[in-house]
Amino acid sequence: QWLLNSQHTDSQCEYAIGYITEKGKSKTVVLDRTFVEDGVRWIIDYKMAEPAKGESQKEFLSHQTQQYKAQLEHYAALCSQVDDRPIKTALYFPLINLLEVI
Asked: In whole angstroms, what is the distance from residue 47 CA to residue 77 CA?
């Protein structure tokens, strides 16, 4: 419930950020969830994945973190251009009710 609480400062779902790439192309990313708590900007990316049969939760999280870390770093870099607060990023897996801070 903490994650979905709409009372957080600057609480946004499906928050679009436009930017220009190094090659001059206009692009947009959409943050699934972002908010500020205790002076920290949180960026949460929802993933509808769950561990495969026989895969441990540790192995699953390692794979998911490796797969999406660069994406979250990109989101954080974009946010840091307009927000000087510290930033934390995380993946949220609603099918297994798990928040993994990256």
From this structure: 20
